[in-house]
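Q: Okay, next protein. This is Purine nucleoside phosphoramidase from Kushneria phyllosphaerae. I've checked the sequence twice, so it should be correct. Can you predict the 3D structure?
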Amino acid sequence: MSTIFTKIINREINASIVFEDDEVLAFNDVNPQAPVHVLIIPKKEIATLNDLTEADAQVVGKLHLVAAQIAREKGIAEQGYRVVMNCNEQGGQSVYHIHLHLMGGRQMSWPAG
């Protein structure tokens, strides 16, 4: 089943892309929760963190490397930023294609609960 992220990868849906290579795509979130809010996804379809295998370790690491690169490019690396990956419904995952949220540009608070 194709997700919205697959459609973005395939250019069936437009996105404001900030990074792309053979394995990873990053684009600005359409509903940002911070002044900088970028979604970083593998081009390989992996539904949840629970579906990762040893073969996926390199690309998951690369998601974090790309997040740090984008944070530097956006000027938020020194002051700090947050990276978050949600898993399944109770973890807040709404698109079943793993994705890393890079958020910054303001003081991030820890959610209550």
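A: Here is a summary of the prediction. DSSP finds two helices and five strands in the chain. The CA atoms of residues 48 and 98 lie 5 Å apart.
Q: Noted. On to the next one.
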